[in-house]
Structures are given as C-alpha cells and as structure tokens.
Amino acid sequence: MVKCEISVINLKSISFTKRAVVFCSFFCALLLSHVPAEAAWRPIGNVTRVTRPKPNRIVMDTTSRAKVSVEFFDIDVVRIRIAPTGVFERDFSYAIDYSRDRHTPSATFTQSAREAVLKNFNGAAVTVGKTPYSVRITDESGAVVLEGDPRHPTLFDNTTGEIRTSKLRKSEVETYYGFGEKALTGMSRDGQYIVNWNTDTFAYKIGTDPIYQSIPFFYALHNGRTYGLYFNNTFRTWFDMGKTSPERFSFGADGGELDYFVFTGGKERSPKKVLQDYAKLTGTTPQPPMWALGNQQSRWSYYPESRVREIAAGFRSRKIPADVIYLDIDYMDGYRVFTWDKQRFPDPLKMITDLKNDGFKTVVIVDPGIKVAPNYSIYSEGKSEGIFVKNPDGTELNKDVWPKAAAFPDFTDKKAREWFGAQFKKHLDEGIAGFWTDMNEPATFMTERTEKPEIVYHPAKTFPLDTPHAGDGLPDDHRRYHNVYGMQMARSTFEGVKKLTPEKRPFVLTRAGFAGVQRYSAVWTGDNYASWDHLALTISMLTNLSVSGVPFVGADVGGFAEMPSGELYARWLQAAALTPFLRSHSVGWVGNKEPWAFGEDFTRINRESIELRYRFLPYLYSLFREHERTGEPVMRPLWYEFPNDKQTYLIDDEYMVGGDILVAPVVRQGMTTRGIYLPTGADWIDWWTGEKIESGKIHYLQTPIDRLPIFVRAGAVIPTQPVIQHTGEMQNAAVTLNVVAGITPGKIEKSALFQDAGEGYGYRSSEWREIRTEHRSGSLKIEPFGTFPGQKIEYIEVVGISQRPREVRVDGQIVENIEFDNSRKRLRIKIDERTREVSLVR
Ligand code: MIG
C-alpha cells in the first residue's frame, strides 16, 4: 500500500504508459488488501427524529445513520451513547457494578426545530443541537459543565470502526487527573497524550505509556469546579488532553460505541462528588482482611523453604513487623500453576502452618498461562472443559510464557472463570491466604522467530488481535476484550476463592486491570525501577490511581529492577509507610533487599518506618471502611481534598492519607530539608513536634533521614495503636485517640473509628463497632455504636497543645494522671471504655 501511495503522488512526472501500469497495480493492491486506503471519517450529521423511550432518556436518528442516546443515568450523571452503525450494542459493561441501586431521576423533555433539551428535576440539563448534532451539558445553576468543540465534531469511520470526539476546555489552565495507572510526568495530565492498552512493560520509564492498567476515567478541574468523564469502551482508547491544541481535548477508540458518562459533580462541582458517583457506577473495594494492610515482603523468588523460613525469622528476630510473605513463580513445578516444586518445597502445608503460627500469611503468584503438557492435569482438564482461548481457526491458542507453550483460559467466559476459580481449592486447603495474579495483560513472550523484537509495543507481546473471545454473550475478538482480560482473571480468582472459603475475605493482587477492577483486587504498579525518579513517580501514580476508583494500591518498595542504595530503600519504605498497600518486592538477581540488608543504621530507620505503619493501622482500616461505603479513596492527592486551593493542583510530592493526614516524603537523594506546602482550607500541626504550621505557604523544613514528615489537620481525631509485630496481635493492643488541637471555636469535627474481627463478613451484620467522636474546642465526646468487642480505647493524646491545661475532666471529674510533654506539645490522658467526655480548661 505504501508503495502505491508514493506512485500516485509522483504520477505527473511519469509517462502515460507507466501511469497506466501504476494505476493498474494501485487498484490491484486495493482489491487485494484488507487495509483501507485511508481513514474515512464521517460526522454524525443532523438529528432527524427524537424519541423518548424512558422519561430520563431520549434517542435520536441522524442523517448519517448513527444513533444517539442521551440519558440522565443518575442524578448527577449523564450518559451519552453514539452507535455509528445505527444499532446500539448490548447494554453491558465489565466496568459497571450491576449490584447497585441507582436513582432514575425524573426529567422533562422539550424540543424545537433547533434543539432537544432533557432537563433533570434539579435543573441540570443536556442540550442537543440538531443541525448538526452537538451536545452541551449544564449544571443546576445553568453553568456549562461540558460542551463539544463545534470545529471538531464527533467522527466515526465505518471502515475501520474508529470513533473520536473533541470537547472544549474551560481555559488553558484546566488540569486533568485520574486515568488510572499512568507513569507520566507530574500530577496533571494536561497537555499529555494517553493510550489505554494493557501492556507488560518491564522496568518502564517515566513517560512509558501505556503500562499495565486501563482506566479511561478522568477529572477536569478548573477554578475549584470539577466534572468527571468515563469513556465506557474496552477497545484501545486514546486521549489527547490538550496536547494538539490547548483549546480542546479529544478522545477516541479503535472500535465500539462512543459511550461516555459525565459526572457533573453536583451542586458543589466537587471532586468528591464525582468520585462518589463514579464509585457508584463501577463499585468499591470490599473491606480487606486486616492482615492485608500489614507489611508484606516479596522477592522473585524466595526459595527453597529454608530461605522462606529464614526471611520470616529475620523479621521476628529483628523486631521488624510483618504480616505477609510472597512466593513468586519459582515455587511451582516447572511454572505449572497450582503445583509445587517438591524439591524446593517438600511439605507446603507444614511450612504454611508454621508461618501462620508465627503470624505470617502466605501469598502465591498465579499466572494465566497453563503449560501445554498432556500429563499435567490442569491443562488436560482445561482442554476437555473447552475453556481455553482459541485461534480464529478453532485450534487452541498457544503462546510462550514462563512454562514455554501455554494455553490461556478465556476469562471473558463465565464457564472459564468458574473453572479457574475452582482450582484455588488446593492452595486454600494448604493454607495459602491470598493470590497474586500476574502477566494478565495478557503478556506473552516473543520467540526467536518474532520479527522486529525491538518494537516496544510489539503485537507478539499479547494475543493476536483477531483472537476470538466469548465476551459473556457478546463474542468478539481480542481488540474488544484485551483490556478486560486481566480484571476478569482477578474476578475469577476473587469469586473462586470467595466461593471456596465464604467465611473469609479474599485477597487478590493484580497487575492488569480495567475500570471496576477495584471490586475484585488490589493493584500494584508493576515492574518499577530502583531510582529516585521512580520513587518520586509513585506519588502521582498512586494518587491518580486512587482517585480512579482503585483504593488498594502500592508500588514495589525499593524498586523492582536494580539495586537501591540504603538511603533510597529507606526513603522509599518511609514514603510508602502509609500507602494503602505496603509491599517490598524485587527481582532476584541483584543483592538482598530486605529492610535489614543495608546495615545497622538503615535497619533501625526501616524498622521505624514499618512501626509507623502499624501505629496507624486503626486509622487506615477505618478509611477502607469509609471507602467501601462511599468510594472515598484511602490515599488522596491534595487537589482532591482542597480543590479551592489552586496551589495544590500540580503538587506531586505530597499526599493525603484520608482527609486528616498530609505526608510530605523525601523523594530526592541527600535531601535533609525540603519545601512543604500546606493547603489552605485547614490548619496544620506537625505530627512530630506539635508545632502549628501556617497554611497557604511553602515551608522549608528539616527532613532528617529517619523521619517521615507528617502533618495533621487541626480538629481531626486520629486513632493509633502501639507497635505490634503483626496484625494477629492487634486485638490486645489498646487504641489512642489523637485529638489534634487548634479546632476553630464553634466548629464540630466528627470522626469514626471502625472496628471488627478484621476478617470475614460479620461486619455486614452486627459484628462491628464504631467509636464516634465529636470534637469541639476544649471537649471531646466519645460514643460507641455497635457491640463488637474491638480494641480497647485507652488514651487520648492532644497533639499540638502549647501548654499544660489548668484542668482536665473525664466525664466531669477532674483527673490528675495526665502527662504533658512540652517538647512535643502533647498531652496524654488515660481514659477507659466507659469514658464519654473529656474536657480541658486552659
Ligand atoms: O516476566 O513472576 O511484574 O512482580 O516478580 C516477569 C516474576 C513476571 C512480573 C511481575 C513481577 C514478578 C515477575 N513477573
């Protein structure tokens, strides 16, 4: 084809006879080739007819044959669907959580020759222009939320199946966030070009895109006002966020419908409202087992058994807390999933039981590739069950991965999901506590015969595009289902484990995923690199992933590839200490990377970082509870909490844990002071010194190697516990409620500590307790709800109190046994389970 085009361009300069030959070969080539000559982009055209199948939905015919549907999907959620073929697809999405109730908002409809208007009961409206088709969404106050760019209308190409649209930016200073797991520079995606196509990207660099996950959801923020947009399309998608022109952003896909949800952000137009509505659409992460919030240790790979035991003992003997140990691919017999290498692990049950008795859970990796070997029962059973992915000609798709030639379950087939899910029985019987699903982009190896292996996104790194999939009733090829394969493997794992052990909460960790993956799994950011840049990158990656609906996120501490210095490892562990998922993991061919592998001084610092993690576990656990209910993330970027402070919009070296803790880790080598910005809209206290730090300013503070800079919000009540060695010891640890001084007089701050068994589903009925507090200037009211016998409440610590109060009363009685630490500006008051009110008189 390329040859033909060149010939055509040069036609004028060649003779008539030659021209005839060129023309002939050009048309022959056209006939022979399946590749279309060029993209044939067509607009939607004019709206010719409007029908209203439901009160909250209108459907339009157009001159191009494309059909358009406009709907108030929920009160503050507009859904627009354009079917280029004129026939809407089956209304099913792997991303959507169908188990949730939704409001069907009442709406009114009016139309004229020029416009069709669907108006929500609260005043928000969608206005469709008819000649030609255009769309504009306005909020309750009539302000424009989002409108199409009239000079770059929605286009589709019926020959290739591609679709695209462009929207106007509010101004050149609009910032964009979300997009799931992206290794791109900075916090905002403004000016960037983004592609979604799950890809195995070993030792990715800053700027490598795409990587493992695809979440086509983003926020636009301008002047404190937000909206969100989720592009409900599983094909390869792309977003041009003002890179081509600062006047607009554009997005499109290689196929499917132009189906997108706009989250208007409600009256406040706040990021929180956007995320709540997105979470209502795609679901939340169920409360993880408590142990999964503990410190986790991994390596590719720890083996044989003696080495695993040595690592576990290494934590206990050095008093470094830990809850989980991971087994990477070398535990298997020749990389056959659901088997053991009997030389390396002669008695898995015994080892796992001993580890369990020592407070360690064991998690194993599971790959989707099932070794092609007739005498391997998992393979032969899978084959006879017919659950493997096939080639277009009906033969089994075999590709090389770790076990060499492998077959792959079609996770878009319910039968395959159930079959694979049932295989976990063996490991669950052995006592394995959780599963780590890797290589599920899906990733395959290139062989010696692969042409041009130097191409980064080589097609041979996954299934061929024309590979058929069941698609749960909508059979189509890999183009449509590539991006959901990983999340469906995580789902198969989650659902399988849940069915086999219904009394427990499954723990799944996945590398690949799509919007909605949070319903099944935690996510880690794949094969990062032991460099300072990569450490710095974790903050924007994990916070953007968090606001993309996925709360349980972490990066390989210390970097997966290469060897960190002691300083880098220590700073990394420190920076990660309060991130939702805390796991050290690395390749096996560089030096040891356990927290004690960098000399005595670093061992102490690393121990303190992990101890810090365990101190804050009651707070972290409560945040997960809040997430399950509302969709609020655990880890949060600053702009999300403080959208009215524009200084926060680009901050990518600080993060929030919940709404009350701001962490400003050191992510640069040798930095013993750093600039720290504290947002306006709150007052801040230094957690360590109790010093009040003025907001709205950058402070240059000392950041010694053994301290994570933490700031807490004035007025907050933050539960902590003493250091324990693993979460199994938690029940006997007593809670301290840290009451942060400096609350604005007249204000009431409410908070809740959530307690339950840390496992199982009792918390969904009556086996839970919530310690609710109300903080006013000078007084704290404590009220327990629920009857679960959770950790006892033993102390109140007032953080940031500058002098010893004249009087402290507990339930009205003056008490004397208080400790005031002037150097740290802390006051400690002993209370007990019956305490309902503590008050201070200055
Ligand atoms: O081809 O199982 O990202 O965490 O250690 C590499 C071996 C396969 C990639 C994962 C990594 C894991 C490794 N895996």
Describe the protein.
This protein is α+β, with helices and mostly antiparallel strands and about 850 residues long. About 20% of the residues lie in helices and about 30% in strands. An 8-stranded antiparallel beta sheet has the order 2-3-4-5-20-17-16-13. An 8-stranded parallel beta sheet has the order 33-32-30-27-23-22-21-34. A hairpin with a 4-residue loop joins strand 7 and strand 8. Helix 1 runs antiparallel to helix 2, helix 7 crosses helix 9 and helix 11 runs parallel beside helix 12. The longest helix is centred in the middle third of the chain and has 23 residues. The structure holds ligand MIG. Ligand MIG binds next to loops.
Task: Outline the secondary-structure elements.
Blueprint (H helix, E strand, L loop, with lengths): L1 H8 L6 H17 L9 E2 L3 E8 L2 E6 L4 E8 L2 E7 L23 E5 L3 E6 L4 E6 L2 E6 L5 E4 L7 E2 L6 E6 L6 E4 L14 E4 L16 E2 L2 E6 L2 E7 L5 E4 L7 E6 L4 E6 L7 H12 L13 E2 L7 H13 L6 E4 L20 H10 L3 E6 L3 E2 L5 H9 L13 E3 L2 E4 L6 H9 L2 H6 L3 E4 L30 E2 L6 E2 H23 L7 E3 L2 E2 L7 E3 L7 H15 L6 E2 L11 H11 L6 E2 L15 H16 L1 H14 L4 E2 L1 H4 L13 E3 L3 E3 L9 E6 L5 E3 L5 E2 L3 E6 L7 E4 L3 E4 L14 E6 L8 E8 L11 E9 L2 E8 L6 E7 L7 E4 L2 E2 L3 E4 L4 E5 L6 E5 L1
Parallel strand pairs: 15-31, 21-22, 21-34, 22-23, 23-27, 27-30, 30-32, 32-33, 44-48
Antiparallel strand pairs: 1-11, 2-3, 3-4, 4-5, 5-20, 6-7, 7-8, 8-9, 9-10, 11-12, 12-19, 13-16, 14-18, 16-17, 17-20, 18-19, 24-26, 25-26, 28-29, 35-36, 36-37, 37-42, 38-41, 39-40, 39-42, 43-44, 45-46, 46-47, 47-53, 48-52, 49-50, 49-53, 51-52
Helix pairs in contact: 1-2, 7-9, 11-12
Bound molecules: ligand MIG.
Ligand MIG binds next to loops.
